[in-house]
Amino acid sequence: MSLGAHLQELKKKHATLSARVEEAERSPGTDDLTIRALKKEKLRLKEEISRLDA
Questions:
Q1: How far is residue 47 from each of residues 6, 11, 23, measured CA to CA in Å?
Q2: Which of 17, 33, 36, 54 lies at a CB distance of 3.0 to 4.6 Å from 42, suitable for a disulfide?
Q3: Taking the model in full, what pTM does it have?
Q4: What is the predicted pLDDT for the residue at 6?
Q5: DSSP labels for 11-41?
């Protein structure tokens, strides 16, 4: 997999996680630990994207 394709895949995963976080925050049945885990994974992806894109 080329670097460009890998970056695109990471960006797609980041966008998917972003949508899941928003959905979880709107859902009253979602606990804070789940939301925190999603946000942590989203941040990890963002950092990896930034590192590879530099």
A1: 14, 11, 22
A2: 17
A3: 0.87
A4: 94
A5: HHHHHHHHHHHHHHHH-TT--HHHHHHHHHH
